Amino acid sequence: MATVTLTAQNFQEHVEKPGILLIDWWATWCGPCRAFAPIYEQAADKHADVVFGKIDTDAQQELAAAYEIRSIPTLMIFRDGVHVFARPGMMPGPALDDLVEKVKALDMAEVHRKVAEQEAESAKADAEKARETTAEKTSAEG
Hints:
2 domains
């Protein structure tokens, strides 16, 4: 399968689709990005059941900033709308194939359970912090 050009206009649509989305964050001036491109294209051809997207960081600067892309190439993976992997740097073809297989093998029910636990913990911590701030203000006023 050919790669898909992702932009700010179609990014969320692709992330939210069921299945696996790999993203290669790249730029035309980046030597390692150009070296990684044929590896990525071969993987796209080999794994037709996976969407392989490419984001030109120069053309999509706001999107790159939103995802805190600091080094390119960066490989990012979403599965069923969940961000499951991100790593800067090139990756050899066999390692990329292995990574795709590992993402395919993920128990997404377990992943969703862990995400829900983390979100609940974060909400609990935020609520605790808000109570502490309110208590501090109340005691300072009193």
